Amino acid sequence: MHKHHPRIALAAATAAALTGGLLTFATAPATAAASARHYKADFNGDGYGDVAFAAPYATVGGKGMAGYVAVVYGSSTGLNPAKRTVVSQNTTGVPGTAEEEDYFGEALTVGDLNGDGYTDLAVGAPGEDVGTDDDGGSVTVLWGSSGGIKNGTSVKDPAASAHDEWGRRLTAGDFNGDGKADLAVATSASHAYIVKGRFTTTGTTGGTQKIDLPEWAMFGVDAVAAGDTNGDKKSDLVVTYRTRLDSDPSGSWSKGVAYLGTASGLDTSVPRPLNGGTSVALGDINGDGYDEIALGNVFTKEDDHTGSLGGQVVVIRGSVGGPVNGDAPMAELTQASEGVPGTDEANDGFGSSVSIGDVNGDGYGELAIGVVFEDIGTKEDTGSTVVLTGYALNGGRAISQDTYNVPGSPESMDYFGSDVLLSDVSKDGHADLTVAAGFEDEGVGAITALRGSSGGVTTAGARSFGPGTLGLSRTYGSFGTGLIG
Questions:
Q1: pTM for the model
Q2: Which of 126, 208, 227, 335 makes a 20 to 30 Å CA pair with 287?
Q3: 434-447: pLDDT as tens digits
Q4: CA-CA distance, 380 to 346, in Å (whole number)?
């Protein structure tokens, strides 16, 4: 019998909600991370952006769902799968051992955690058993170097007896503005921890701060992300979760909250209420120097009172005072919105993943949105990705495996758009689009890499790769989960 795990539980709930119970598994939304400084994933310090992702449900050393992570390094021509690093808990120098249902790579984030000039990769394995503590969870930092990712150090759980699933969700930021990257770590309980930098290879850190959510998170934390919403050079933290209100116990509500960074850490005294969501990204969409918050929510109203027909994305504007929510978000997007490609259809999963980056180099951040259960022709749940033009978000395009020059072909249950990432991997000033199809080939998973340009995302020269390209077994694993860069 499988151990309970929150991401699989969320995925199963999502799939059941969106397909009438026909599916029992789907790739869960990603937890895209950003920071006040928008940490760039450059693990080998060559100036090209890199991309990290996981196959958290892959078999490693004969252990089912042990999981592994991979880094594909950038180049002048984009992502280069020939130049990569693959790491599991069976890799020399990495703490722990690959075990069944560890889900190593279930959560990922990046930042220069030890201040040596190379980006590091933090990896959550929330299913890890710690001694006699089933599903105690672990967080491991894989260190960047001139040769790329190598070796690792465990990040200690400050209150192991108070929760399970240490490393359920991760994001990095500089929450007190001291120039040292910090880690935000969510658990199975209604709280998270900030582990303060600087981190060392011997496991020491700068201490911890506990963050209690305003309400009970009945299903745990859905997503976390960091960014600078008020332009003060300190990271703010966004957390989403689902709760049940005493006034209406018949269903769940997706809630969100933002905590602003201060010189002494996150200000938890006045949490800023936000719309809820199952995916979160931060970035400057309107070019005013303040990060916007994009919150994707795939649930329908029948399964989450805050949901919609086919999924929605709410964008909250940043300002000198922080996120501006109230009754006037910057945008409330569905596939029925003007300029958004497609049709608002039940159970499409619009908002399954979100990412913000400047694709065309005009100073405004584009918004990429996964539509994980979009049907293409007669193929059900093929999936697609929508990219909306920055500033006004009033125009864009849809990209799928049915789009000209995109490798592959649309197949049922590919879930193209299960994870999306806008990041510059070619050092040309244009954010490139990387898309995961987490259930390609019945759960093997695959990644498609598209280039950014002054005209937007281009499919010319598009590349696609899966575990076979990296010399790995093409077996079930959800390759591409948690894209970050």
A1: 0.93
A2: 335
A3: 999 999 999 999 99
A4: 12
Residues in contact with 323: Cβ distance below 8 Å, sequence separation at least 6, in sequence order: 229, 236, 258, 272, 274, 293, 316, 317
C-alpha distance from residue 345 to each of 208, 293, 381, 402, 418 (Å): 44, 24, 12, 19, 18
CA 287 distance to own-chain centroid = 23
Q: Listing from the earlier edge strand, what are the strands of the sheet with 432-437? A: 416-423, 432-437, 446-451, 458-465
Residues contacting 468, CB < 8 A, separation 6+? 474
Measure the CA–CA gap between 301 and 347, rounded to whole angstroms.
11
> How would you classify the pairing of strands 191-195 and 182-186?
antiparallel
| Residue 315 phi, psi dihedral angles, 5° rounding | -110, 125
Residues sharing a CB contact under 8 Å with residue 379, sequence separation 6 or more, in sequence order: 410, 411, 412
What H or E segment, with its residue span, contains residue 289?
Answer: none
Residue 249 has pLDDT above 80, yes or no: no
Asked if the model's pLDDT at residue 472 lies above 90, the reply is: yes
- C-alpha span between 481 and 346 (Å, rounded): 24
What's the pLDDT tens digit per position in 136-159? Answer: 999 999 999 999 999 999 999 999
As a whole number of angstroms, the distance between CA 247 and CA 62 comes to 48
The β-bridge partners of 255 are: 241, 275
The structure tokens 């963050």 sit at 211
Question: Which pair of tokens denotes residue 16?
Answer: 């059941």
Q: Please calculate the CA angle 352-355-360 and round it to the nearest 5 degrees.
A: 135
